[in-house]
Design brief:
heterodimer; A: 270 residues; alpha+beta; 13-stranded antiparallel β-sheet; 3 helices; 44% strand; B: 394 residues; mainly beta; four-stranded mixed β-sheet; 1 helix; 22 strands; 5% helix; globular
């Protein structure tokens, strides 16, 4: 009797447990279904763009306002891919001339705060700076720091919206919602190329969920199996300002290592 | 002079690379700035005009990890003969590997984390005639070895020659009204005294740490009025010191917590001093692109009223407004309030922006307020001034 009873109880408990877990799984997979397609696409974007090791490039930034006045900045960037974490990068500014030689070292992390240092050549001073200002403008441009930091899968939650066509390319439209609470955006709508899994366009929605700006990725070039847009164009719909980034002299696997991304390297950067 | 000898060694060393490197000219990079400034002393009704320039020539070997940098600076001033001066800011050879670096020549090194005082920073002498905030430094002859380990970075310095602090001449209201005589030294070797320094620095998560030790000639002179045949003169006296320094910064979101502390031993009066505070940044204030940084730093010196340093018991409160616009417009306003003599304080405003692509303009205003004759600020109470500078960068 005791045995029987206990067997019954066990069976009941098992049944209950499995039905619970089944129900649980259904809830998860229901939202994950939408989510999981978005997540899978985002993961594929990251997977296809991993293994590049390190890169070196020059960048020109052209800032324009509504009146058509423009200003130009140039810089050089070195990036080191870090497996299982955000990238390390070192940026040196060449123009405007008054900030020439100013350099920026960043260790980005998927979920923890990024570590960032600024080198001020006139004072020979290395300053650890706050990385909390992700939503602030980068060098007075329409890009914020968070737009230019590395896109780690862990930084967002995803929702697949639809398939679409953009300038003759088949795309997935996926909504990215930042997990970071101080992000300047409620969400991003990302147009991802169905063939190569690369970003074609991003629409940014501000904290009031209104359409703030659009970033277009143009002139893609393949470097081995890695694709890079040679032009980024961002237009702010609220201010009428725009910024164009032109990338030049891209090189991958140039032999950079951790030693090229420490404070001594930051002080040597020119 | 030792540094001339050192410099000639460096030239010989450098010239080997110059010959070996075919593309020598391609690896040379020249940059610099030139400009003009005018300073008005409001109470003296005096104007001080000046022109200045700095040129930096940098050579980087294409095939080896060698580089050489020369930076020359000069200023001509209408009022202060001591401010008409030139300096070799840098004349430095550098060789680096992934795990160590060596530098030899003349150069500049900065240590520290706080904004309103740089207590730990001791390698270079202050070029105090250049800027009243003490941020400008004279080139220091040195050999610096730097070892980079996973447990931190170690820097060792040999400093074979001493530079005297530049001090405003009697013609400038920034001089307290006394002729400056030749410096005297505790060490018989005077400027030829060889100083040594060692520093350990490391980053652990949110913490940036620095520990340092210095043995040699103090960069800050003791300024004593002496009556001699020429009347009353101010005599800069340079002590021999041993100084330990600590720098800590914790970077926690929008908060930067900072501490600099030193302990100095000399044959006159040992002391400890510290500066501690925070910088908090309010991002995108009022839905604009502007950031507002709030700065608070407390200064303390164990010598109290006997300290040569005006920051013996003071509180600095400041606000930095950064526009994040195309012109990089920025304002900094601040007050350093003496907490012992409540009528003594220094108030300042700094503003800067870019004009076009290659010009910057800056405005710097300072007010010295004191009614306590014993306070160091008192000597400068009539030296309030405002400086406007335009600089062309190339």
């Amino acid at each position: 009797m005791l045995l029987k009873y206990s067997a019954f109880l066990t069976a009941t408990l098992l049944c209950l447990a499995s039905s619970l877990s089944f129900a649980g799984a259904q809830v998860v997979s229901d939202s994950a279904n939408k989510d999981s397609k978005g997540f899978t696409i985002a993961k594929e974007v990251q997977d296809r763009d991993s293994g590049w090791g390190d890169s070196h490039a020059k960048m020109e930034m052209i800032l324009s306002n509504k009146q058509g006045q423009s200003s130009r900045r140039t810089m050089e960037l070195k990036t080191l891919e870090v497996a299982g974490d955000g990238d390390k990068s070192l940026t040196v500014f060449h123009t405007p001339r008054d900030v020439q030689g100013t350099a920026f070292l960043s260790y980005s992390h998927a979920l923890e705060a990024d570590e960032q240092w600024l080198y001020l050549p006139a004072l020979k001073r290395v300053k650890r700076i706050s990385s909390a200002n992700k939503s602030g403008p980068f060098l007075g441009s329409e890009f914020s720091f968070e737009d230019l930091s590395s896109f780690e899968v862990e930084k967002y939650t995803y929702e697949f919206i639809r398939e679409d066509t953009l300038a003759g390319n088949r795309v997935f439209v996926v909504q990215y919602t930042p997990k970071y609470s101080h992000s300047g955006y409620t969400h991003l709508e990302v147009w991802i190329d169905q063939k190569e899994y690369l970003f074609r366009k991003i629409e940014f929605y501000d904290r009031k969920a209104s359409h703030l700006k659009t970033l277009e990725f143009n002139e893609y070039k393949a470097f081995g199996k890695y694709w890079r847009a040679m032009e980024y164009k961002v237009s702010n719909h609220q201010t009428g300002k725009s910024t164009i980034l032109n990338w030049q002299d891209y090189a991958f696997k140039t032999g950079l290592n951790d030693a090229d991304f420490n404070k001594n390297a930051l002080k040597r950067a020119r | 002079m030792k540094n001339v000898l050192l410099a000639s060694y460096i030239i010989v060393f450098f010239s080997q690379f110059a010959v070996a490197d075919n593309s020598f000219i391609h690896n040379v990079d020249v940059r610099g700035n030139t400009g003009s400034g005018v300073r008005g002393f409001t109470e003296y009704q005096k104007l001080q005009g000046s022109v200045f320039g700095e040129i930096e020539v940098h050579w980087q070997s294409e095939s080896t990890n060698n580089s050489f940098t020369t930076t020359l600076f000069g200023r001509m001033d209408s009022l202060d003969s001591e401010r008409t001066h030139a300096d070799i800011r840098e004349f430095m050879w550098l060789y680096y590997t992934d795990s160590w670096e060596i530098k030899a020549g003349i150069g500049k090194v900065f240590w520290g984390v706080t904004e309103s005082a740089h207590r730990v920073d001791i390698i270079n002498q202050t070029d105090s005639v250049e800027t009243p905030d003490g941020e400008a430094k004279l080139g220091q002859p040195m050999i610096n070895w730097s070892g980079i380990y996973h447990w931190g970075t170690v820097d060792a310095f040999v400093l074979p020659y001493f530079r005297e602090r530049t001090l405003a001449s009697i013609d400038s209201p920034l001089n307290i009204g006394l002729f400056i005589s030749d410096a005297i030294y505790e060490s018989d070797k005077k400027q030829e005294h060889t100083d040594y320094a060692l520093r350990y620095s490391q980053t652990v998560g949110v913490w940036d740490l620095g520990l340092s030790y210095f043995k040699g000639t103090d960069r800050a002179p003791v300024l004593a009025p002496v009556v001699n045949s020429e009347g009353i003169q101010l005599v800069p006296y340079y002590l021999q010191i041993e100084q330990a320094g600590l720098e800590v910064q914790a970077t926690l979101g929008s908060w930067l917590w900072k501490l600099e502390a030193i302990h100095q031993e000399n044959n006159r009066r040992n002391y400890a001093a510290l500066t501690a505070g925070f910088e908090y940044t309010l991002i995108s204030i009022a839905d604009s692109a502007k950031d507002l940084g709030l700065l608070v730093e407390l200064h303390r010196d164990s010598r109290n009223g006997q300290a040569d340093d005006p920051l013996q018991h003071d509180l600095f409160v400041g606000a930095r407004l950064t526009f994040n616009d195309i012109s990089d417009t920025a304002f900094l306003v601040g007050v350093i309030q003496d907490l012992t003599d409540s009528d003594s304080r220094l108030a300042f405003i700094e503003a800067s922006r870019r004009m076009g692509d290659d010009w910057t303009v800056s405005l710097d205003g300072r007010m010295y307020l004191s009614e306590t004759p014993e306070n160091i600020i008192y000597g400068l109470r009539k030296a309030d001034h405002i400086t406007l500078e335009a600089t062309y960068h190339f």
